[in-house]
Amino acid sequence: MARILVVDDHLPVREVVSSYLRARGHDVVESGDGQDALSVVRAGGVDAVVLDVMLPGLDGREVCRRLRAIGDIPIIMLTALGREADRVHGLELGADDYVGKPFSPRELALRVDSVLRRTTGRTDEPDVLSDGDLVVDVARHAASRAGAELSLTLREFELLRFLVSHAGTAYSREQLLQQVWGWSVGDQSTVTVHVRRLREKVEPDPRRPVRLVTVWGVGYRWDPAAEAAS
């Protein structure tokens, strides 16, 4: 059981989302505004946040930015804004998932479960993955490059872990959505955004990637350090 904070200024939405999450065995805390939500998270004990974008006063984007400054707690954002640019902006702020309104409460609850599963780690791979100066510590859920720890969101870490553990294999954006995050449906721009953000943290020159490379017509591939240097 996890403790989930649901943040939405519309009581009916909060009640529906909360009821579905409770039905899946979670403890749910509700909040109607951004400042209160930040106070709840700072008090501790919250495992994930479902966060509406269109909040009065301190809006969801700013709340997301401040939550990222607090730590790497998983954030699933809700929005009635359907434009791709709005979704991409939310992801760039560090959201781990982005669900458009109207949405299926059941699907949202499953998305929350998927995010939470990714925080528990896996037992079918080494505790530490190494590639040149890059170290992915699966057990600690942390990564470092040249000895310096990388600041990664949950989704960035999961993407990095998957690609490094499957180095040399090209994956389409659809495959990455399915195999990294377990989504059978989803916005493929999610992958594009997180690839770009990850390159900024693991590539010597993000504009000319040599590790997380684009395979034209296919998707993306992780090239091991020895191959990248050759």
Description:
The chain has about 230 residues and is of the alpha/beta class. The protein has 2 domains: about 5-120, Response regulator (Rossmann fold, 3-Layer(aba) Sandwich), CATH 3.40.50; about 130-230, Arc Repressor Mutant, subunit A. It is about 40% helix and about 20% strand. The protein is built from 9 helices and 12 strands. The strands form 3 sheets. A 5-stranded parallel β-sheet has the order 2-1-3-4-5, with helices on both faces. A 4-stranded antiparallel β-sheet has the order 6-7-8-9, with helices on one face. A hairpin with a 2-residue loop joins strand 6 (about 130) and strand 7. Helix 1 (about 10-25) crosses helix 5 (about 105-120) and helix 6 packs across helix 8. The longest helix is centred in the middle third of the chain and has 14 residues, at about 105-120. The radius of gyration is 18 Å and the shape is globular. Residues about 120-125 have low confidence and may be disordered.
